[in-house]
Predict the 3D structure of the following.
Amino acid sequence: MTQRRLTRREFVRGTAAVGAGVAAVPWLGAATGAAAPVRGGRLVVGVQADIPHLDPHRSALTISYVSLSPMYQALTELGPNLELRPQLATSWTVSPDGLTWTFALRRGVQFHNGRALTSRDVRFSIERILDPKTGARGRGDLNSIASIATPDPNTVVFRLKAPFGFFPNKLATAYQAIIPREAVDSGNNVTKPIGTGPFQFGDWVTNDHLTMRRFDRYWDHGKPYVDEVTVKPIPDETVRLTALQTGDLSIALDVPQARLRALFAQPSRDYVIRLVRGGAGQGVIVLNTRHKPFDNVKVRQAVAYAMNKREMVDVLYRGWGVTANQNFSPASPWYLPVKDRPVDLAKAKALLAEAGMPNGFKTTMTVGNGYGLPDLAQIFQSQMRRLGVDVNIQVFDIPTWAGRINSGNFDIDNTGFFAKVDPDDGYYRYAHSNGGVWQLSGYLNDPELDRLLDEGRTQADLAKARATYTRVVEILQDSASMLIFGSGHSAAGWRSNVQGFAPQLIGALSYAGGGVQEAWLAK
């Protein structure tokens, strides 16, 4: 891969270190052999929740990236530890002024409908993501694009509004998937799930399964090895682990953290368990600033001071996490020197009194039924009682919950952010008013924050970038609408006859250089 950077080598080296800072530890369990891959068979994968739809651009949920990644691919992709790798683009260069990025497309790529990938498909897909009517998760990541040119079928040229050293990172993952125009109807809806990945769409039954079949004309010739991948949403983590242990699942994501010590102490010959450091991402409570009383910063700060992060981390990560106040693991180079807010119930009550609510108030927390979120909601509810705040918990299945959050139909949300690649990835899409998933900061509207996030994208000096993002973290903490409380590890498991599989930090089932397209079943 050739890539000519701006004169910002120190900055690029600093950002490249982020992925390496959260590496997965060696897997624990039965050993795998080095035999040649065998073709055939079926993988059944247990995941935490169902996808809301088959449109890779429109979902803000991590589960969409996880589950749809075998079908959809982007120009670039994230490797096992979130290092940037080529995918549908094989190389890229940047002009001396940092404004023009030229990507060379991989030759011989076909969509699942048999048509060859061209630069026009890239332009169509990126323009669809940038169209506000699409409601794409990745729009904020790409709004630095001023124009897209397609000088020939194998070349795409992006002209940016301002230099943006993180730009190739923003073209990664299934959220920025390249899809053909014929996959989208006149209403801008994906009616035919067509991608370029190793597996093509089979069928989808909501809350039961998503089946994908091997695509025999996949560009990485000879792969995938298995005939079929079936993804089964199993929100209950204990049920998911049991299904792995009994052989009903080939692979299980998000193995219960509460069981890990016992699983590691008594490894099985039948299955493998692997810890992925930083894989659980960050936990967050979101207060909607468009809903009273959270339009008052003193109310939000009162909630923040009443939160006991240690209790929340222990419940959510079951001993496999640490408290945090930023959207990175504390092990990351981008975890910046901003002191966390202490638990201070007296100060919380004083702030609530200053806000004119000395006797507290009633509110509602919108909770997704998965990822340990209901248990976390109960801990948060009990903590708020100490403040005099009565939190009513409403639990919804994951697609319904996601729809309510995406539309802003919530007072309080508890959710999680997956592991991040760089500080722009960590904050822009959430906290900038044009960020794409602005609702996940509770629609925090702060002109200084917008200015800093815009500034951070153009800075070439690492020290200046750290100073800018330190101020971003300070504003987010003081504004208290996006309350990050912890960072956790995750674990994945697979049957011992599953060879060649390794989990990605975020959990994508298919990613550059790994995942289900590398897996095969030993006889």
